[in-house]
């Protein structure tokens, strides 16, 4: 495992004349984005949902092949939408981990080739850390974001991660808690598959839960009062038991019992996430909190977390829905900060890290 380097500068991004190409292929989205002087100029995401839907989850081999077919096209599209050419680039950033190793290697090798051909620096970005910084990206048509006061409590919840961090500045993180088994998004996907809702599970369950009673089933809130770690495997098992005991397999897709079970499951996960985030805020005396990752697109979670932070008069930073999912804009954004701070450059021998802790 490569050593994690300390960053030595926090130069304001608005003062850095940089045009950064970001590339992302860690799971089932192929993405490219252009980021210039602190603003996202373009963000292109090619989803693979249709390819993986029939399997109820991401198939690594299929994902890798799809990335190979799409990476060049999405890069060209991102450049075209930003009205820039490769010759304009002053640096590149690519997801180096964590993720599916075969998928990661597609964007990583593509980025290394471009870096070599253009003679421009390339930096490797931690995908999870990039999610955490997504609320602080600027869009040309959006309002400027006021820089936060630190420290911040950060919850990154996605298909592969349920992590809590203390964020001391944009580039310095300390782990506070993590999942001991299934991540929140993974639990959603597996539960949706059990209920016959298909993939991706988060959207399916959220849609069904809107017409259900979240108190219909007394589901557990795992580890609710035990530290800041998460555990969703047992909750998923309890849903399976109810599903089998009540013979919900024979019920139609719009049956009220299924809606109630989906709502009860969603409530258990979201209440646990918000409770742990609140605990992290109190523990580190945070000036605010960040909610990011794919699960952060859930309306119930965004509302509950916002209400919790409002009660203690602290801001909650959440990215727009388009930047909750995997995207390359967040990769370019963090990459620009890393390059500005003197991050060591990737060489042609750089490896992908399927597991890469945030530090």
What does this structure look like?
- There is one protein chain.
- The protein has 359 residues and is α/β, with parallel strands linked by helices.
- The protein has two domains: 13-139 and 323-340, 2-Layer Sandwich (Nucleotidyltransferase, domain 5), CATH 3.30.420.40; 152-319, 2-Layer Sandwich (Nucleotidyltransferase, domain 5).
- It is 38% helix and 18% strand.
- It contains ten helices and ten strands.
- The strands form two sheets. It has a five-stranded mixed beta sheet, sandwiched between helices. A five-stranded mixed beta sheet has the order 8-7-6-9-10, with helices on both faces.
- Helix 3 (101-118) links the parallel strand 4 and strand 5.
- Helix 2 packs parallel to helix 3, helix 5 crosses helix 6 (201-209) and helix 5 packs parallel to helix 7 (233-245).
- The longest helix has 29 residues, at 256-284.
- It is globular.
- The two termini are 13 Å apart.
- Residues 1-16 have low confidence and may be disordered.
Q: Tell me the quaternary state.
A: single chain
What is the count of structural domains? 2
From the coordinates shown, what is the CATH architecture of the largest domain? 2-Layer Sandwich
Number of strands: 10
Largest sheet: 5 strands, mixed
Average pLDDT for all residues: 91
How many DSSP helices? 10
- Name given to the CATH homologous superfamily of the largest domain: ATPase, nucleotide binding domain
As laid out across the biggest beta sheet, the strand order is 3-2-1-4-5
- How do the SSEs run, as a string of H and E? EEEHHEHEHEEEHHHHEHEH
Kindly state the percentage of residues in helix.
25-40%
Instruction: Assign the CATH topology of the largest domain.
Output: Nucleotidyltransferase, domain 5
Structural class: alpha/beta
What gyration radius follows from the Cα positions, in whole Å?
A: 20 Å
The N- to C-terminal Cα distance equals: 13 Å
The fraction of residues in strands falls at 15-25%
Shape: globular
Per CATH, the class of the largest domain reads: Alpha Beta
Q: Uncertain segments of ≥5 residues (pLDDT<50)?
A: 1-16
């Amino acid at each position: 495992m490569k050593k994690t380097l300390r960053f030595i500068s926090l130069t304001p991004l608005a003062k850095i004349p940089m045009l950064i190409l970001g590339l992302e292929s860690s799971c089932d989205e192929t993405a490219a984005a252009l980021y210039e002087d602190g603003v996202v100029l373009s963000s292109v995401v090619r989803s693979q949902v249709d390819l993986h839907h029939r399997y109820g989850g991401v198939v690594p081999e299929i994902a890798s092949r799809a990335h190979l077919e799409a990476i060049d096209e999405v890069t060209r599209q991102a450049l075209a939408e930003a009205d820039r050419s490769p010759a304009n680039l002053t640096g590149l950033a690519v997801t180096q981990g964590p993720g599916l190793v075969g998928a990661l290697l597609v964007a990583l090798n593509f980025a290394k080739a471009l870096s070599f051909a253009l003679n421009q620096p390339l930096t490797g970005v931690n995908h999870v850390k990039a999610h955490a910084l997504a609320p602080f990206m600027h869009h040309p048509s959006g309002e400027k974001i006021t820089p936060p006061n630190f420290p911040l409590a950060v919850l990154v919840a996605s298909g592969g991660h349920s992590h809590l961090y203390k964020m001391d500045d944009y580039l310095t993180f300390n782990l506070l808690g993590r999942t001991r088994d299934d991540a929140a998004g993974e639990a959603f996907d597996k539960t949706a598959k059990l209920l016959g809702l298909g993939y991706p599970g988060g959207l399916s369950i959220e849609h069904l839960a809107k017409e259900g009673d979240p108190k219909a089933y007394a589901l557990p809130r795992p580890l609710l009062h035990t530290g800041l770690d998460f555990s969703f495997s047992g909750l998923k098992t309890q849903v399976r038991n109810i599903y089998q005991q009540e013979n919900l397999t024979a019920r139609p897709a719009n049956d009220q019992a299924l809606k109630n079970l989906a709502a009860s499951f969603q409530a258990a996960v979201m209440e646990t996430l918000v409770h742990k985030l609140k605990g992290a805020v109190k523990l580190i005396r945070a000036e605010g909190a960040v909610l990011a990752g794919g699960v952060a697109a859930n309306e119930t979670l965004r509302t509950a977390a916002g209400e919790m932070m409002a009660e203690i008069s602290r801001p909650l930073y959440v990215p727009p829905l388009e930047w909750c999912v995997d995207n390359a804009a967040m990769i370019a954004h963090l990459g620009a900060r890393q390059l500005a701070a003197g991050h060591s450059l990737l060489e042609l021998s750089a490896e992908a890290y399927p597991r890469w802790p945030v530090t």
